[in-house]
UniProtKB/TrEMBL annotation:
Entry's transmembrane regions: none
Natural source organism: Donghicola tyrosinivorans
Positions with a binding annotation for homogentisate: 362, 383
Cofactor(s) the protein requires to work: Fe cation
Protein's name according to its UniProt entry: Homogentisate 1,2-dioxygenase
Keyword tags: Dioxygenase, Iron, Metal-binding, Oxidoreductase, Phenylalanine catabolism, Tyrosine catabolism
GO biological process, one term: L-phenylalanine catabolic process
GO CC terms in record: cytoplasm
Keyword field contains Disulfide bond: no
Similarity remark: Belongs to the homogentisate dioxygenase family.
Residues at the catalytic site: 304
Database matches in Pfam families: HgmA_C, HgmA_N
């Protein structure tokens, strides 16, 4: 299958601008798109009869009275009540939700894991999800979970939605296709996708095996951070987010829909594909974003700003300036600061930090934090450069230097992150990680002028 081949029977709208086949540019735009001509009502949302005999239906991602409300009007072959029957509880033992405090796991610590190894066992988007940490409480819609996915098998006549969360997907290996109610997103490493709460989709493998990271956001939706004095440009620019054009399939085949709801999984059986939205308009939609379009801003004379300067997306909490989740990107950039220790400094932080390496080498940890790997520096746990990074950066000649071949990210939350049983016992934990600081020397002996 080549990149732009559609699933058999899928009919897709023409692109809005023609620049990005299958996608419409912009963040939180009020998009409109139709896969059949005239399917989208004009000038109103709920005509007495819709074209083609379609049903009109609203999907609300915020309370009706939120300002601004985020909602999308869909025009579909069947209303969603026909894609939902009686539910049966099912078990997905590796996908955990907060609160999930494991009595014999010690979450207090600095941890690092090797990449989860691929396996010959068939794993789908649902069975291949491995929760590493949880934070907050899914029932009160605060906090998050961090997952690593291992996917080698497409979902067939099987669909999913999470009522609990929006998912931020960060691929590290392989290519996935998200066939959603609102259109198709093809995703590969160096891109991310945001799948909104409540949106039905299936995930296909375009090129596998696939591995990547997911931040499951229980709380308020991700938004673009305010740039403050930086102004109207740089960091993540709205035009670089892409929402899919409408695409639908009219397939009558026995199918299952799995629903994640308050941390539990339920299955329902239906007789057709639920991906039957022929046209839609609104501002509640899935997106993808190319991380290579992220324009980093940094120090141009001395010191360096807090890592919040690299925030791509932020999910607010009820406390101003204190995110439920920040998604932060450490990518290629120039280092030019004078008389400055250039890597991230030593610190303790009330926020807890889960990092993943997408590719290359991370400057504060030249070894050990490898592509596909994960590290966790939990609430108020000190961390910083290892000895090699410290000595190298303390003695380097400070000329302009390109930090190249590097892309790591952080899921940072205001809540402590609790290890799952899987993270503590099954995942390839590096037992010696904490030793990376052991060889740091005491240099102080009271002599003035010694540096
Ligand atoms: Fe940190």
């Amino acid at each position: 299958m080549t990149r732009h081949d559609l699933p058999a029977g899928m009919i897709r709208a023409a692109s809005a601008t023609g620049l990005h086949e299958g996608y419409m540019p912009g963040w939180a735009n009020d998009f409109e798109t139709e896969a059949l001509p005239g399917a989208l009502p004009q000038g109103m949302n709920s005509p007495q009869r819709c074209e083609y005999g379609l049903y009109g239906e609203q999907l609300s991602g915020t309370a009706f009275t939120a300002n601004p409300p985020e909602r999308t009007w869909t025009y579909r072959i069947r209303p969603s009540v026909k894609h939902s029957a009686r539910y049966t509880r099912i078990d997905l033992p590796y996908w955990k939700s907060a609160p999930n405090v494991v009595p014999d796991a010690t979450s207090l610590g600095q941890y690092r894991w090797d990449p989860l190894p691929h396996t010959d066992t068939p794993l789908t988007w649902l069975t291949g999800m491995r929760t590493m940490t949880t934070a907050g409480d899914v029932n009160t819609q605060v906090g998050m979970a961090s997952h690593v996915y291992l996917v080698n098998t497409s979902m067939q006549d099987a669909y999913f939605f999470s009522a609990d969360s929006e998912l931020l997907v960060v691929p590290q290996e392989g290519r996935l296709r998200f066939c959603t109610e609102l259109g198709i997103i093809d995703l590969e490493p160096k891109e991310i996708a945001i799948i909104p709460r409540g949106l039905v989709y299936r995930v296909e493998v375009l090129e596998g095996p696939c591995r990547g990271f997911v931040c499951e956001n229980y709380g308020q939706k991700f938004e673009l951070p305010g740039r403050g004095p930086i102004g109207a440009n740089c960091m993540a620019n709205p035009r670089d987010f892409k929402a899919p054009v409408a695409a639908f399939e009219d397939r009558e085949v026995p199918s299952t829909v799995t629903v994640k709801w308050c941390g539990q999984f339920h299955e329902t059986k239906i007789g057709q594909s639920p991906l039957d939205v022929v046209a839609w308009h609104g501002n509640y939609a899935p997106y993808k974003y190319d991380l290579r379009t992220y324009c980093p801003v940094g120090a141009i004379l001395f010191d360096h700003p807090d890592p919040s300067i690299f925030t791509v997306l932020t999910a607010p909490s009820g406390v101003p300036g204190t995110a439920n989740i920040d998604f932060v990107l450490f990518r290629e950039r120039w280092m030019v600061a004078e008389n400055t220790f250039r890597p991230p400094w030593y610190h303790k932080n009330i926020m807890s930090e889960l990092m993943g390496n997408i590719y290359g080498q991370y400057d504060a940890k030249p070894q050990g934090f490898i592509p596909g790997g994960v590290s966790l520096h939990n609430m108020m746990l000190p961390h910083g450069p290892d000895r090699n990074a410290f000595e190298g950066a303390s003695n380097a000649e400070l000329k302009a230097e390109k930090l190249d071949n590097t892309m790591s990210f952080m899921f940072e939350t205001r809540f402590p992150q609790h290890l799952t049983d899987f993270a503590g016992k099954e995942a390839p934990l590096q037992d010696d990680y904490i030793d990376c600081w052991e060889s740091l020397e005491k240099k102080f002996d009271g002599t003035p002028g010694v540096k």
